[in-house]
Amino acid sequence: MHATISPAILYCGSIVVLISTTNPNSTSNLAVMSSAWFLSHRCMLGLARTSQTTHNLLRTKQCVLNLPSSAMGAHINALTCTTGTKDIPPWKRATGYRYVEDKFGCAGLTPQASMDVRPPRVGECPIQMEAELVGVHEMGKGDREGVAFALEVRILKVHVEEGIRLAGHANRIDPDKWRPMVMSFQELYGLADEKVVVSKLAQIPEEAYRPVEVAVPVLQTGDVERRSEAEENGDGVETVEGVIGASPEGRFP
Questions:
Q1: For residues 149 and 104, what is the distance between their CA atoms, to the nearest angstrom?
Q2: Is the pLDDT of residue 252 over 50?
Q3: Of 120, 191, 224, 228, whose CB neighbour count within 10 A is largest?
Q4: Rounded CA Rg of the chain
Q5: pLDDT of residue 225
Q6: Phi-psi region of 13 (alpha: psi -120 to 50; beta: other; left: phi over 0)
């Protein structure tokens, strides 16, 4: 039996993201968020209009999406309810937010230089994605107009820890090793240690979804031994059109 209710929030479960941006004074801002979803090499970010992260992203058009593991709860809690805005909005002040200038220091995290954007990566996060802003969509029209933005970013570079790479593949992450932090109704969770069922969708090669404009990167140090295995397993742009075709529209499940 179902009951009809009116929840104040609808955060039914999504990964936590530590998003880094650059402040007007060239220092770095770091914020916890979970309203993020990915499609191909694009990501939609749901951010409050008054957030320092929003201001920075709209101004500089750059950010880094750092994905923490489920072992990083202490860092996330240390950063939660902090803001990089000195003029704290009334709602945030009422709910206990405080201004912090050094977000990395507050959370005990290490800034790591990025390659294509100015904001730093978070050294402790197993997955780091450098990104640029490509679209701004106002949310809440007809409801609480102007309260938030859906910001579309394009992923420029992806950095991952060696320990979560899939053996035999140059460009894949092992889902059995990657343990993201998940937020559900404000609580923090990790994934179970095993698959609940074998996924039928996983039978489709990941390379079939690669956007035509995203090339396979040059193999880095430590990748040489993966080259022949990767070629045998179909890791490469040249295999994509043979599987799906040239139209990117046909690549999404």
A1: 25
A2: no
A3: 120
A4: 19
A5: 46
A6: left
Count CB-CB contacts under 10 A for residue 13: 11
> Where would I find the H helices in the chain?
52-60, 73-79, 90-94, 103-107, 227-232, 240-243
Instruction: At 135, list the tokens.
Output: 């679209």
Q: 3-state DSSP call for residue 150?
A: strand
- Output the pLDDT for position 250: 47
Can you tell me the distance from the alpha carbon of 236 to that of 233, in angstroms, rounded to the nearest whole number? 9
Summarised one tens digit per residue, pLDDT across range 165-203 is 999 999 999 999 999 999 999 999 999 888 899 999 999
Kind of pairing, strands 62-67 and 82-83? unpaired
* Six-digit token string for 213: 């404009």
Total-model pTM: 0.85
196's CB contacts (< 8 A; 6+ apart) are none
Query: Is the pLDDT assigned to residue 232 strictly greater than 90?
Result: no
